[in-house]
Amino acid sequence: MTTATTTTPTTTVRTTTTARGRLMALGRAEMTLLARNRTAVIVALLVPSAMIVAMKSTLEQVDLGGTGLTVAAAALTGGIGTVLIQAVYMNLVAAYVARREDLVLKRLRTGEVSDGEILTGTALPSAALALTQSVLIIVTGAAFFGVTAPRRPELLLAGLLLAVVLLTALAAVTSIVTRTVQTAQLTTLPLFLVSMMGSGLFVPLEIFPGPLASACEFLPLTGVMTLVRSGWLGVPEGADLLGAALTGLVWTALAVFAVQRWFRWDPRR
Amino acid sequence: MAFAVLQRYMTFVMGSDDSSHCSWSCPGGNLESMTSDEIPQGPAIEVDGVRRSYAGGFEAVTGISFSVARGELFALLGTNGAGKTSTVELLEGLARPDSGAIRVLGHDPYADRAAVRPRIGVMLQEGGFPSDLTAAETVRMWAGCTSGARPTAEALELVGLGHRAGVRVKQLSGGERRRLDLALALLGRPEVLFLDEPTIGLDAEGRRDTWELVRRLKEDGITVLLTTHYLEEAEALADRLAIMHRGRIVTTGSTAEVTAARPARIRFELPAGVAPGHLPLGLRAAAEGRRVEIRTHRLQESLTELLCWAAESNVPLTGLDARSASLEEAFLDIAKSAAEAEGVTVS
After folding, report:
1. What is the pLDDT of residue B5?
2. How many helices (H) and strands (E) does chain B have?
3. What is the mean pLDDT of chain B?
4. Are A107 and B140 a contacting pair at CB < 8 A?
5. Cβ contacts of B243 within 8 Å, gap of 6 or more
6. What global pTM score does this model have?
7. What phi and psi, each to the nearest 5 degrees, are found at residue A111?
């Protein structure tokens, strides 16, 4: 019954789209797709929990004495890192490749939406999922595992946001060399493994020998993870927050540059 | 039912006769062209000396020029690989030409895409949608990115997909996906519409319905640039057309103008014992065995001459067939002569 009223010819005021409106439209569609992709949802929910349990049992055998971290705190901050990589990076590489191979990106580019908006809009639900999970981990840690409430919330938030932006850009870069959705599982492994081992996700960097630990400071995710950990647990003495932020920003800038330069909008055939 | 109300309204606006031969329902009044504050001036599309080459050096478009007036339907014809899609992508602002200038509604479609995009509608030859969204969800997503978008239900009704609104894209047929694509191109009530092979993959009925819709859009003053390799499609719809071959425009004009330059054709078979040499000398005939083909620019005179000769000589002309040049003949003729000029034979 309502259809008749919407199609009644009235003097139509021509609405103009805004960047916000376009992003919301893309994000909403992508959210629907994410919700319908049962595997992705289950993986996104289960893997971080499993990782936290695995880290905890590993960390119980590591001497954390010199790091000032409790086992729970180290495992849960690593859990946030895992969530970010899983929900943002791995999810988005698959999503960008799928949309590219289905010619969705090509079709979108004929419209009013800009290139940056296409990539951002597609990333919104994954970003929201990762941030929600991170909040859950922090709440759980504070409520049940005796970890402190965030000491520097503003630092924590800045770290999380920078991590999301960086991983989104890195996902777009990785999609360039990814042929199909299936091969995304392979092409996302290097960053996943390097970050797990070298960016303090699985074990704190402090237990590595000096030169190795310093080298790891320059890995893509080490900077943002330092910000997140410092924001939650408090800034350790002698921590180089500026250096950490700079590392994160430089990697983000490099990734954005690579995307602008080499991102593939048409299918690889 | 809302549908019945709609139908009645449609009949009132469109006139029942008009809509009866189109099986899609049309929400009346909404096809009216957008009211633009600007006074239309100058051509809708201007192309001047445009070239486009791809990485690797292949030059797909080798210097073409044409213009399309506002409200005109212009068809780009050509064999596969002639450069049609490469040209249309430049007009849509998806790529920048290597040299030459393009103006769509007075703007550079690549550099000034923010000004052009809200006023044009695009249907790619091959464009996609997420396969797990429904038709309605796809339109809704697109509407959020389109200035002055029609309501979702109206856009789907426009292309006869109203009953498929809740169906996932992956379950739509190829033809239905094509129509969904068309719905998105029309979503923002564009002033200029680019249709790249719009009826590929459609059955006869779907094709006819698309033609009907395109005609109505044209009546509403929308400028349409269409590529096709169905010659009858160009013949049925186009005000003017250009035939492309190997990146060049080899001929352009109205259908009548393009075909007028081509000779008409008379074919028949001579009875055994009558040699083609006996034909009147005024006729340029080519014979193959007993079969004769005459090409002429003055069909009526040539035919009169032939028939008078046949009557006087009492020669029966079996299978006599005389026809003016059609677009198809013009097209084949052009492709053939262009190929011959390049030393390639075309069957």
Report:
1. 42
2. 12, 13
3. 83
4. no
5. B77, B78, B249, B250, B251, B252, B258, B330, B331, B334
6. 0.81
7. -100, -165
